[in-house]
Write a structure and sequence with these properties.
It contains four helices and no strands. With 80 residues, it is mainly alpha-helical. It has a domain of 49 residues. Helix 1 packs across helix 4. The model has no long low-confidence stretch (mean pLDDT 91).
Length: 80
């Protein structure tokens, strides 16, 4: 695994969203079965990840992150 420097500053207000997008970038849509979707949904709710925060930080990630988010249907757990 290659460690790279973040393209934007990571701080306490965006760390959860950045971690979530990193997860989406490093996994494939097929990885998300019903149980894993529940775990991710709980993470989203617990950390207050919103559509607005995803939209704000998605440009700093490869297209694969958003593709996985949509294809895995995890996007439907982001309700705010």
């Amino acid at each position: 695994m290659l460690l790279r420097r973040a393209r934007t500053a990571i701080n306490s207000s965006n760390a959860a969203t950045m971690s979530f997008l990193e997860l989406m970038n490093f996994t494939d849509a097929g990885f998300y079965d019903a149980d894993r979707k529940k775990i991710v949904a709980a993470f989203i709710d617990k950390n207050g990840i919103t559509r607005k925060s995803i939209s704000a930080y998605s440009p700093y990630f490869p297209d694969k992150a958003m593709r996985t988010l949509v294809e895995s249907e995890v996007i439907y757990n982001v309700t705010r």
